[in-house]
Amino acid sequence: MRIFTLILIIISLGLMTYNLTQIDWASPFEGTNIVALITTLALACAILLLLILRTSKSIEKKLKNKS
């Protein structure tokens, strides 16, 4: 599970970087730029959720070993 989440985080970071390069910063809220912005925000949320999952699995493992 740890390797799987790490791979997904790396893929998300790569896609986020790609989408950030596609944005025309002169007018970021027009045309296809809005799609890149929405996708970047969605990928940021995905990374946050994956980090929360990793943390919860770590806590679960520590609690299981304690008892």
Topology:
Elements lengths: L1 H21 L10 H34 L1
Helix pairs in contact: 1-2
**Spans of at least 5 consecutive residues with low confidence:** none
Class per helix and strand makeup: mainly alpha
* Number of domain units: 1
Mean pLDDT: 94
What is the element string, with H for helices and E for strands?
A: HH
The radius of gyration computed from the alpha-carbon positions, rounded to a whole number of angstroms, is 16 Å
Strand content: under 5%
Number of β-strand runs: 0
Helix content: over 70%
Which overall shape is indicated by the principal axes computed on the Cα atoms? elongated
Q: Give the CA-CA distance, first to last residue.
A: 22 Å
Please describe the biggest sheet, giving its number of strands, its sense, and whether it closes into a barrel.
none
Count helical runs. 2
What would you call the quaternary organization?
single chain
